[in-house]
């Protein structure tokens, strides 16, 4: 992650609470963010985040992401990055997509054809015998 991007993100992150119990040192936020981006970019499961990369454990990164989302960091970062891109005229709206799960449709669509009748009609059975008593074959 570039220093420029980190300088935008760092002020948005909540300050960590003081540790109540001694233990492992806290993974720095920048390293945890790199681990989060690695998982999101590669699609690997959190638990398989390689420790050798120095991002901390997958669970640490997952917890940090959850805490930051709860603190509203993602929404703030989204707004900040959109403003920055707009100011440099770097937004390409030709690739934007809007669907009804995010924006309410203004009008209803065309009326559908009338539904088929749900009246009870007896259909021929393919599993029962037409005779009063079905015969069974016996395997011996």
What does this structure look like?
The protein is an all-alpha fold and 140 residues long. The chain has a domain at 27-91. It has 4 helices and no strands. Helix 2 packs across helix 3. The longest helix is centred in the middle third of the chain and has 15 residues, at 73-87. It is extended. The model has no long low-confidence stretch (mean pLDDT 84).
Question: Helix and strand layout, with pairings?
Answer:
Layout: H1 3-9, H2 29-42, H3 58-70, H4 73-87
Helix pairs in contact: 2-3
The secondary structure category is mainly alpha
Helix content: 25-40%
Q: What is the approximate shape?
A: extended
Rg from Cα: 29 Å
**Overall mean pLDDT:** 84
Q: Compute the number of strand runs.
A: 0
Number of helices: 4
Main sheet attributes: strand count, strand direction, barrel closure: none
Uncertain segments are none
Q: What is the H-and-E element order?
A: HHHH
Question: How much strand?
Answer: under 5%
Whole-Å distance between the termini? 74 Å
Region (Disordered): 103-140
Biased composition (Basic and acidic residues): 110-122
Biased composition (Low complexity): 123-134
Domain Insertion element IS402-like: 1-78
């Amino acid at each position: 992650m570039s220093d420029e991007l980190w300088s935008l993100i760092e002020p948005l992150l909540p300050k960590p609470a003081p540790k109540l119990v001694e233990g492992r040192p806290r993974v720095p936020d920048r390293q945890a963010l790199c681990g989060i981006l690695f998982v999101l970019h590669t699609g690997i499961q959190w638990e398989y985040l390689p420790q050798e990369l120095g991002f901390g454990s997958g669970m640490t990164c997952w917890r940090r992401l959850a805490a930051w989302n709860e603190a509203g960091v993602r929404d703030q970062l989204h707004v900040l990055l959109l403003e920055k891109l707009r100011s440099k005229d770097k937004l390409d709206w030709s690739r934007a997509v809007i669907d009804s799960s995010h924006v309410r449709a203004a009008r209803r669509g065309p009326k559908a054809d009338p539904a088929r009748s749900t009246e009870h009609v007896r259909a021929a059975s393919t599993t029962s015998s037409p005779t009063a008593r079905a015969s069974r074959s016996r395997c011996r």
